[in-house]
Specification:
By secondary structure, the chain is α/β, with parallel strands linked by helices. Helix content is about 35%, strand content about 20%.
Length: about 260
């Protein structure tokens, strides 16, 4: 196992750029997975990382040892603890990082049957939670506008808890074009809608359009919707968090499909 303790090491400098820059991740088409859970989810989905990085504590961790056994044959590098900490946004580093190629979507819009269209979702936690809900609900694709947060950033990856690896994620999309190509009903969530989510038949091909946390959906996407919908809120609050609204919409579709 190779050991790196200098910040001037070329490999470490390359990884540090990747950890701190969305532009670099896009340029190299790579990212870092931080923690045993994400690496396990990645391996469970049939993928293989390019390189694994550990700190000193990880060498005595049974969970890390098990992951290294699963990733036999891959290069593993131990980093000085200070270098490892510099790559992680966590106050207490997890002890294991994995360098991966970004999974590429394997299906076209026309192949999708249950999807999310996300417009300018800028909060990484919200975006990650939406991906986690989409994965749990059985969505086959998520389409992101150019104004969304970096979907492969550490914060989004942590919030999605492995959801990235079971979804076809399409970045930097022209969402009106996606809406026109989707082979089913397109529902747009908006507070101004007169139709109730629970009154919609969601058993066929369906996609939900969810807008920016503050501004909501653009007029273009609202106009392209088969139907605009609102979630009934009898309580005294103005609106729901975008990720909570997404989960409610997705799992109402799940409920209807199980009943039928």
């Amino acid at each position: 196992m190779k050991f790196i303790q200098s910040r001037d090491n070329p490999f470490f400098r390359e990884i540090a750029k990747l950890a701190g820059s969305a532009r670099q991740r896009g340029k190299e088409n790579r990212t870092l997975l931080d923690g045993a859970h994400l690496l396990a989810a990645y391996l469970d989905s049939g993928f293989r990382p390019l390189h694994i990085l550990v700190n000193s504590a990880a060498l005595d961790d049974a969970e890390v040892e098990s992951l290294l056994e699963r990733a036999v044959g891959l290069p593993v590098t131990q980093l000085d603890d200070r270098l490892f900490a510099a790559l992680s946004e966590l106050k207490t580093p997890t002890g294991i990082l994995a360098l991966i190629d970004l999974p590429q979507p394997s299906a076209a819009v026309s192949d999708s049957r249950f999807a999310l269209l996300l417009e300018d979702i800028q909060d990484p936690g919200n975006l990650g939670s939406m991906l986690r809900s989409a994965a749990a609900a059985g969505c086959d694709a998520v389409f992101l506008s150019r104004g969304c947060a970096d979907v492969w950033s550490p914060k989004v990856l942590r919030a999605a808890m492995g959801g990235h690896f079971v979804l076809n994620i399409h970045e930097r999309q022209d969402l009106p074009g996606v809406a026109n190509a989707f082979p089913g009903m397109l529902l747009a969530a908006t507070l101004q809608a007169t139709h109730n989510l629970y009154g919609c038949d969601l058993r066929g091909n369906v996609a939900f359009s969810i807008g920016n946390e503050g501004a909501g959906l653009s007029a273009d996407l609202l106009n392209l919707a088969t139907q605009t919908i609102a979630i009934p809120m009898p309580g005294k609050v103005e609106s729901l968090n975008a990720s909570a609204a997404t989960a409610i919409c997705l799992f109402e579709a799940v409920r209807q499909r199980q009943v039928s």
